[in-house]
Design a protein that fits this description.
about 65% helix, about 325 residues, mainly alpha, RNR-like, Ribonucleotide Reductase, subunit A, metal-binding
Length: about 325
């Protein structure tokens, strides 16, 4: 049974497992289960009070972006991925991932409830700040294609739309934009600030590393089973999507840190973004574009968890899924 399909009566038997990587990721995701209130965020309040206005702005800006976009990812999974895959083991993992996105949303709500952040202003930012709104509009365009128009997953065009959506959400949103924000969030702990908040973000990163693995595996499996979709034109389009995403993230980071804070400024973050983009391009089999070195070596375990597989070649069946971020 191929991985793509919309038959309701198909994919109702878990064993024998067709795609072991999906089952392994599900087992690992279940083992990683956690809850926000296990972290005592209140202990970070004193740090928040002594942070500069620019530092508090950065934290608020991150919450403004992360909170609605965790829910946007859930829509992309529910409407753009789950209905188009057949394998029961993929459905199990996607169900756990959707729960995790909800848990991340509640984690950021916990931050908004704990720190004296203007919730209304934070909520409005994802609409009112042009650089943030541009990123959201980019993502929404892909999910609209999946939900508001007829997508025929049996056609080459439909399969390409499916892959576009995966690249937009799993590779760009979760694999570049979220990781950029995670680095900024965890940079506070590097200066001995917001240590419990850092622990909360660690758990989120651990989940997101699995989301990224699942998305890459799914893309590669679809390409392996449907080699006709991996044309040179389509590959060039996918590559350009990543480059466009970097430009949007660079503008966003200039708004995130307009003046810089101790040890961190927009140029530093954007070097990290270019480094991330090169890694994601390589994971899809492309040549790196930027040649950027990682300025945040302490984030390395969260970044380099994937094995390289060529976009135009068959899926590497030895693709590893058991490396944890931070392990």
């Amino acid at each position: 049974m191929p991985i793509l399909g919309t038959g309701i009566a198909e994919g109702l038997l878990l064993k024998p497992v067709t795609y072991p990587w999906a089952m392994e990721l599900y087992d690992q995701a279940v083992a990683n289960t956690w809850f926000p209130n296990e972290v005592q965020l209140g202990e970070d309040l004193a740090d928040f009070e002594r942070m500069s206005d620019d530092e508090r702005h950065a934290l608020t800006f991150l919450m403004s972006y992360f909170n609605p976009n965790e829910l946007l990812v859930n829509k992309a999974l529910a409407f753009g991925v789950y209905p188009y895959v057949n394998a029961a083991e993929c459905h199990l993992y996607l169900a756990k991932q959707m729960w995790e996105e909800a848990n991340h949303c509640m984690s950021f709500e916990y931050v908004l409830e704990t720190f004296p952040i203007d919730r209304v202003a934070a909520y409005e930012s994802h609409v009112n700040v042009p650089s943030m709104a541009a990123k959201e509009a980019f993502e929404v365009r892909f999910i609209q294609r999946m939900t508001e128009q007829t997508l025929d997953i049996t056609t080459t065009a439909g399969k390409q739309d499916f892959v576009r959506n995966l690249v937009a959400y799993n590779v760009i949103l979760e694999g570049i934009w979220f990781y950029s924000g995670f680095m900024v969030a965890l940079s506070f702990r590097q200066r001995n600030l917001l240590r419990n908040f850092g622990s909360l973000v660690d758990w989120i990163v651990r989940d997101e590393s699995l989301h990224l693995k699942f998305g890459i595996n799914l893309i590669l499996t679809v390409l392996d089973e449907n080699p006709e979709i991996a044309t040179e034109e389509f590959a060039a389009e996918i590559r350009q999507m990543v480059l466009d995403a970097v430009a949007m993230e660079e503008a966003y980071n200039r708004d995130l840190l307009p003046h810089g804070i101790l040890g961190l400024n927009a140029d530093y973050i954007n070097t990290y973004v270019r480094y991330l983009a090169d890694r994601r391009l390589e994971e899809l089999g492309f040549e790196p574009h930027y040649g950027a070195a990682n300025p945040a070596k302490w984030m390395a375990t969260a970044n380099d968890t994937l094995q390289l597989v060529n976009f135009f070649e068959s899926i590497n069946t030895s693709y590893e899924v058991n490396a944890r971020a931070g392990s």
